[in-house]
Specification:
This protein is mainly alpha-helical. It has helices at about 15-50, 50-80, 80-100, 105-120, 125-135, 135-170, 170-180, 180-190, 205-210, 215-225, 230, 235-265, 275-300, 305-320, 330-360, 365-395, 400-420. Helices cover about 80% and strands about 0% of the residues. It starts with 13 loop residues before the first helix and ends in a 10-residue tail after the last helix.
Amino acid sequence: MSIPEKSLTKPLSNIRWTIVALLFFATTINYIDRQVIGLLKPFIQGDLHWDEADYGYIVTAFQMAYALGMIISGRLLDRFGTRIGYSMSIFVWSVGATLHSVMHSVFGFGVVRAVLGFGEAGNFPAAVKTIAEWFPKRDRAFATGIFNAGSTIGAIIAPIIVATVTISLGWRWAFIITGSLGIIWIVFWYLFYQSPSKHKRISASELSYIQSDNSQAEKAIVEKGMGWGKLLRYKQTYAICFSRFVTDWVWWFFLFWMPDFLNKTQHLDIKASVLPLILIYTMASFGGILGGALSSGFIRAGRSIDFSRKTTILICALFVLPLIFVAQIQNGWLAVILIGFAAAAHQGWASNIFTVVSDIYPKNTVGTMIGLSGFTGAIGGALSASFVGLLLKFTGSYTLIFVAASSMYLVAWLTLKIFIPRIEEINVD
């Protein structure tokens, strides 16, 4: 199906704005729920007598369950669709988040953390699959940047909610209140969401625009299907999975250890750390949107998808490099700004790496591929969580962690550059 050249840039309709808004709020809730434990770490450690290694193991439990959930949820979403799959995912993670409030042991926290991680794993496969269904390729990076900004908005809102509730009602109530948000979202999802072909309010011209770059490969996949075994035949799969393995853990580190870093190195308590954390995640939010807009802007200017994605990814990788100096900087605000630039770069990177999946793989297998690559990213996060916890326990220093984090995005960019010579749709045999 083709459309006139003049229609290549079509503004978002009310329907597609609603879809993006729903994805944005789901991602916001996702990140509020996962960040609560990092913000409450000093309180819980004081009450339950955890050490750094205990906390690392609890984070690892989340990451391992998240990895398992990724590889399962992506496949189920491609089979049953996002309307049902997304709501089930959010229900599971909301239950897991709320159950933190009644736990008293490291083991108990590990169990409910695993439930949370398993449910949260469905968010990004579902959201990226929804974008692939509702947007042609030229618009996907920008739309992805908007919904992915929810991850940083969630990280901004979480310190405010958690600090307010904890000071007023105690840390257990912080888990109850944040855990209930997902249930509210499910109601709106069922009220407003349908796939494009089933949506009653979509016009024929908009449906034509959405499907404008559908290919024969898309039709073949709908008929034949494409599971993990077939995905592993392509070198693009390994390149994307490896790039997420070496970079995803850096974002997890920002989420789970930044409150502790500010507390240990800058002596900021939960109230004093709210403003620095808001600055970091506000910068990250803009980074995600700008990264998506830059990539989509290159395409609209006539550059290829390959040039647009890889150039934007390289720019993001360069903005992470100053992390190498963070642990040695005495000025707290300068350290926060450098971390903010790195967090922004990660979100810009994420907007594009998610979109690269939908550039290469047909729509009906996007959920499976996002799940597979998310699985490898979560495994990297799980391994790093225990490593970071043990390293802090025995050295008390963040230096080596920041040094390692600073170079990972360049490694990932080189991997994509070498093993995916050109970003384009694969030929399905």
